[in-house]
Specification:
Elements lengths: L1 H17 L1 H34 L16 H13 L4 H16 L6 H15 L4 H18 L5 H20 L4 H11 L9 H15 L8 H17 L3 H14 L4 H12 L3 H4 L1
Helix pairs in contact: 1-2, 3-4, 4-5, 4-6, 5-6, 6-7, 6-8, 7-8, 8-9, 9-10, 10-11, 10-12, 11-12
Length: about 280
């Protein structure tokens, strides 16, 4: 057995000596294949699963663009009551509560979302998506409900920031998590230094998605493009920001996001932005 193995190894070395160009090319191909496989694992798998369950979405529990109805929430509440230890259902309910606050701006759902997402994390420790929504909840609640510049607002920002950074560490390959994180980090003041990271996240996502980006739900496209534009504007690149806002409006000029994007465009025309 040892002599057979030695003969095979000797033949491999002889081939490398006789055909060095072939050996180098094979190494290059293997390296390229490894990079492609990594990219596919990072984004392609998440995208494929998302398309199968909710066409054009990274998150799959609710339709994009509008918060879940109270009827939908009530249905999931009944399901959780019947199966209180079902992680998937508990997380789904926590996300539903989050969207009722984020999209419908119903502040009554903030404590419900926090308690339910925390419950999901006790059922499955370090679930990246549950952590991402919990972190986002802290940041948006602090931004919308606390006095600007107050100690309470900073405490909320700090808590959300800490949770989101942890989520990125435990689940760095989740496209849904990256989308939630970037949309939350852009809310934070410049002192957190997250603008370059937001740009890195979304530019990397767009590159990895390639032509599939245009197949995403309009809500998702516009949110990502708006966030990226906001980041470039804060980085002092208004022309790049304007280009991204225009691209986002080309997706839809009548959506809820379109109104937000038009306001971002208007900000670029202020004296402060032109300095």
């Amino acid at each position: 057995m040892e002599q057979s193995g030695l003969r095979k190894r000797s033949k491999q070395l002889d081939n490398q000596h006789i055909f060095p160009e072939k050996t180098i090319e094979m190494k290059r191909l293997n390296q390229t294949a490894s990079r492609l496989i990594f990219a596919a694992l990072t984004f392609g798998l998440v995208t494929a699963v998302s398309f199968a369950q909710r066409p054009g979405q990274l998150t799959v529990d609710y339709a994009a663009g509008d918060p879940p109805s109270m009827e939908e929430i009530a249905k999931v509440e009944k399901e959780v009551a019947a199966k209180p230890d079902d992680f998937e259902l508990v997380r789904k309910l926590g996300k539903g509560y989050f969207f009722r606050f984020f999209g419908a701006r119903d502040t009554a759902f903030v404590p419900k979302a926090q308690a339910t997402l925390e419950r999901a994390i006790t059922l499955k420790k370090d679930d990246g998506e549950a952590l991402a929504y919990l972190g986002a909840l802290h940041i948006f609640a602090a931004d919308r409900l606390e006095e600007k510049g107050s100690a309470k607002q900073k405490a909320g920002y700090d808590k959300g920031f800490e949770i989101l950074r942890h989520a990125e560490k435990v689940d760095p390959r989740s496209g849904a998590l990256q989308a939630i994180a970037s949309g939350s980090y852009i809310i934070l003041p410049d002192s957190y230094g997250m603008v370059p990271h937001v740009i890195e996240i979304i530019e990397r996502m767009r590159k990895a998605m390639g032509p599939n980006f245009s197949k995403f739900h309009a809500h998702g496209q516009q949110r990502l493009l708006m966030t990226l534009g906001q980041a470039y504007a804060r980085q002092g690149n208004p022309e790049k920001a304007r280009s991204l806002f225009d691209e986002a409006l080309a997706v839809s000029g009548t959506s809820r996001e379109a109104g937000l994007i038009k306001r971002e465009l208007a900000k670029l025309e202020t004296p402060e932005a032109k300095k």
